[in-house]
Structure formats: structure tokens, C-alpha cells
Amino acid sequence: MKNCIRVPRVLLPREGFETWAVPACDRFADETDWERVAKAVGDAPSSLRMILPYALPREDDDARIQAIRESMYNALEESKLEKLVRGCVFTERTAENGVRCGVVAAVDLEAFSAERGESALVRPSEEPDPEKVRAQLALRRVAPLEFPHAVLFFRDRKDRTMSYLREVELEELYDFDLMEGGGHLRGSYIPEELAEEIAYELHSRGEPCFAVAAGGEELAAAKLYWEEIKPTLTAPERLNHPARFALAEFVNLYDGAVTLHPVHRVLTEADTETACDFIMRNVRCKRDGSLLYPALPAGGEGAARIDELLAKYTHANGGKVSYVCGKAELKRLLERGEGLGIVTKPVEKGDFFDALKGGKFLPPHTFSLGSGSESRYHLEGRETSYD
């Protein structure tokens, strides 16, 4: 089987991991949450200045992207980043469901496809959002570095690879508490020779071999950028050009600490009672104040039905639909003002890869890797150009 994992040279901050690592760019649906993160970071070096949070106004992207580019070059010029010897990072994330393990490595974008109906070794689980991809692509074109939150699932029902890494003596890289209630994160260095062995162990038979659990837009944008510059390169240059690869954390779907949380829907800027009546006339629901619990199947089928009804309602009556990970986050958002929350059910692990066969997708916002606070943080980085 073709190996689509590459052993990278990872970039890490030289100090201040607590303020460097910030929640995933798609974590919060409200600008005020990012204002709180910015206040916590203050003037300290941070990956916050190197990402595009999706909740921020898109009309500000051009200026924000230029600021990100400058921040990246400043971090390099002022030696705020350390480039590790070639190798991978073994991560141990302690959160509410236990310790989730992962391996940070690079994926070959030649093995990735986000095209509907196209089989590939690496596939998105949900169809990437075009607007978010455009924003990430604009950043990719000018940024010399990447600090992604991408997570790729692999299948190892016996959890042999991660169990082995837990027993090996590895050099510690970091060990700290994440901000915003993200739990604790420990990272260890996997030397190149061992990392190459692990890369082969992560591969499994079946299509797809790896499925995107988070950061699909980042990977889709990276692939588009690679396709843009590939024609400008010679055949030898194409083999190892840094833009051909993207950094991601590889996580076992069957890790005991991995939970596939549903992504709930929130309808705002609409009459709550009218919207509630419309949903309940089409689907049997239990109501609890401004929350609806539809009696629908778990996973993609239920999410697709709710999205269909919300699309019909907003088309006729207006309103804005947003997406929230975690029921506590959903309730907190609704407490801020008028709105209708619709609770969805999680996709089952055993159905996950089967739902993607033949180049299919789960509906957008079907699941989240853990609750909102368990999403991957922006931490490890990598050079994406020779500039």
C-alpha cells in the first residue's frame, strides 16, 4: 500500500506553550469568545496571530491575512520558534473522557481528495465549506508556515500502535494545561527511524484509509494550493516541495477517549415560536424551553433532515443558522438572547468510515471530535515554502 504519511520537521514555540496554543479556528461561533482568548494571550507570542477564526468578519480577511504573514516572519526572524530534528510528535490529551493519543505527522496531499464521488486514501468526512476554503487558500498562498488544527482518523480496533508508543521512552517536548478548559496536553518527540515505522503502522486496508475528523477546510485549501503551484515545478521538485504536504494529528477512531459529539443547530434572527411550530409540525420533537430534541436517527441522516427543514424555514421567513459543539455551549449561547436550539445525535463509530465509501460525505456539521473544549488546539507548525 502506498504510504501517504511523511515525517516532518516540526516547529514549536521556544517558550510559553500556555499562551501559544489556542482553540481551533472553528471552535467558537461568537466574536466575543475570541476577544476573551485574545485577552488571555495578551502580548505573548501565540498561534492566535497565525490563524483565521471563522467567527470573525470575512470582510476583514485581507488585512488579517497580511498581519498573519507578518507575524509568521517575525516569529522566524526573532527566533521564537524551534525547528525540531526530523521526527513526529506523540500527543497525549487529557480531557473529560480520558487520555486521547495522537501522532503529529505530515500527510501527502497527492493522496487527498475532497471531490465528491472520488475515491482516495485521504478523504474529508464532511464536504468542505467553500467560503472557509477560500479564506484558508488565500492564507496558504502568502503564509510561509502552517499551524493547523487538522485531525485525521485511522482505524485500529485493538489500539496497538498508540499502546506501543505509550510504553516507549520518548523525549518530552511539552507538558501543560490548555486554556479555555481544554484539559492537559503532553507531547513527546518520536525520532525519525521510529516515526517511519509508525507511519506504516497507521495505514490500514479499506477506502478511505484516513478520514478527516477536523480541519477539512485547511486540508482542502492546502490541496488546492499544491495543485496551483505544481505545474510550475520540475518533476524532481514536485517530490519533496513543502507545499505538497500538510501537517495533521493522526488519531485512532477507536481510542477509548475519542467521542463523536453531535453538532447542534441554532436558529437566530427569527421568531422562535413560529420556527418551533414549523419544525414540530414536520418532525416529532420533545421541547424544553428554547431547545428542541427531534426524534430522528443518529448521525448524518438526522442532521440532513434538520438542515433541510431549517433551509425551508429560513428561505421563507429569514433567519440565521449557526452550529455549536456541546450542549453546554448551546445553552450558554441561547442564554445570551433569543434563539432556537435544535439538538442532534452523534454518528456511531462503526458507521463512520462506511458512510464515506465511494467518495461520499456526511452532511456538514454532523459531528465534532469530542465536545467543544476537546477540539484540537493550534500548536505544532511546519514550513510550507522555501521563502
pLDDT under 50 segments (min length 5)?
none
C-alpha Rg (nearest Å): 21 Å
Q: Separation of termini?
A: 33 Å
Overall domain count: 2
Q: What percentage of the residues does DSSP assign to strands (E)?
A: 15-25%
Mean pLDDT: 93
Q: Report the total helices.
A: 12
Q: Please bin the fraction of helical residues.
A: 25-40%
Number of strands: 19
- Shape descriptor reads globular
Biggest beta sheet attributes = 9 strands, mixed
Decide which structural class fits the backbone.
Answer: alpha+beta
Description:
This protein is of the alpha+beta class and about 375 residues long. It has 2 domains: about 5-260 and about 370-385, no CATH class; about 260-345, no CATH class. The chain has 12 helices and 19 strands. Strands 1, 4, 5, 6, 8, 9, 10, 11 and 12 form a 9-stranded mixed sheet that branches. Strands 13, 14, 15, 16, 17 and 18 form a 6-stranded mixed sheet that branches. Strands 2-3 form a two-stranded antiparallel sheet. The longest helix is centred in the C-terminal third of the chain and has 18 residues, at about 300-315. The model has no long low-confidence stretch (mean pLDDT about 95).
Give the key terms.
2 domains; 387 residues; nine-stranded mixed sheet; six-stranded mixed sheet; alpha+beta; single chain
In short:
This protein is of the alpha+beta class and 387 residues long.
